[in-house]
Amino acid sequence: xxxxxxxxxxxxxxxxELLNLARRMLTGPGGMHGLTMERLAEATPYSKGTLYxxxxxxxxxxAALWIRxxxxxxxxxxxxxxxxxxxxxxxxxxxxxxxxxxALHPESxxxxxxxxxxxxxxNPKRAAKIAEIAAGISGVSLGIxxxxxxxxxxxLGGELTAEHVYIALRSLAYGLMHGWQSxxxxxxxxxxxxxxxxxxxxxxxxxxxxWKPLLRDWDYRNTLERIWSEVFPDEARRMNDGAGRRRxx
Amino acid sequence: xxxxxxxxxxxxxxxxELLNLARRMLTGPGGMHGLTMERLAEATPYSKGTLYxxxxxxxxxxAALWIRxxxxxxxxxxxxxxxxxxxxxxxxxxxxxxxxxxALHPESxxxxxxxxxxxxxxNPKRAAKIAEIAAGISGVSLGIxxxxxxxxxxxLGGELTAEHVYIALRSLAYGLMHGWQSxxxxxxxxxxxxxxxxxxxxxxxxxxxxWKPLLRDWDYRNTLERIWSEVFPDEARRMNDGAGRRRxx
DNA sequence: TCAAGATTTGACGGTCCGTCAATCAACCCC
DNA sequence: GGGGTTGATTGACGGACCGTCAAATCTTGA
Lengths: 249, 249
Fold this sequence. Notes:
DNA-binding, homodimer, mainly alpha
């Protein structure tokens, strides 16, 4: 029954359309407050009831909106993990991937910040998908950390587990992005310090964790150039002139 | 006119009462969603209109609620900065103070996360006070960083400014607290790793920044014991059996 | 062409924020 | 004590928003 298939595709297309629109509302002025089921319905040829056919609640819409940047993150992390080099170079590629996701999907931070309140009322299927992707994301990173330990570049055990290393890198990046994006307290302090800072500080943290080769023993500037040109050539271009326009320098 | 003074004190007392109640609602289940002007009015002998005599908006109430943990933070940072020892020991005392504030005022994180949406409609006087305290807070930390540079313990310049060091420490701590508190993605990874982790990772980050004396050259376990017993003896006790009950270990 | 089934609609109930005219209390002066 | 002025207090109300659901509309298959 091809007609049924057509219809299903039409519905999937509509969902894409809705998500794109919702994303624009979320990244626009007003942030989380700017996205409203009411306004989203008005901005489309469909009514509110139809919206709720796709997303059981606003939280569910946000979850659906979150899946795409999460999937991109997983894909980029996978690619980063394939970088040809030492484990520490690969984890740096992961940090570069963080920056790409942040630049291309600024709404992701808004959702993560706003989801804190919600958490309920998300379609179980979607919630499961999110959990699955998230597990993949941490899995890729943890794999690199364990590779480093296996290669003798990093000494785990005692107070420092692979999870701790991953959490440290993730928390530093998250805190920086939050401080960078939110019009909060460190606004004037962060101003001028572009996202380059995140990569630099992550690299220094790796030194502090004793992850070899240390900064003084390796030319990581060259590593980063290779990462950008070999792993994320397209994304680097899109970041500089693409949709997620933002100051870089 | 003592009667007028009585009245003013009564009003100030009522504001305290309202703030305490609001704080309880915020830390209770539901978080930001659990605090409602409506419910707050119902929980007191006063009506909604009277609430709005104290706080011009819900954002304003949140701002008022934020001032107390901010002030505590400033006070603790000041005390930490007076610790008798090397600059790196003093910045570690600041990190310990972070942990105290997080333990005693868990609502602070909720507010910071939720304020991201608001930002407007805050009484200018309150906003100014917040800005002033925040400036004091970063000032204390930056002072210690600059002390370290002056003492030759830390090499600034080039890519690394005093602000960058401060931002790095703050971001790492913020990211960890967010991941710890939010029922989010790293829940299961963070589980088991108590807030001790924050101090340990901060210390390692300091190593990565080249802030002497490095971990291998100094007994920071002893430093931390001295910090808890000399700088925050009361707070350490309150954290373990006080209001802000939370798992520590 | 028509009936069964699926989809869409927008009005509606409920919650919450913030306002304001009406009410109430305190205070002051005679 | 009485009456007027000033300020505090109230809760009903308007508006925004989420989520629901019976009615209307469209699709499909015979």
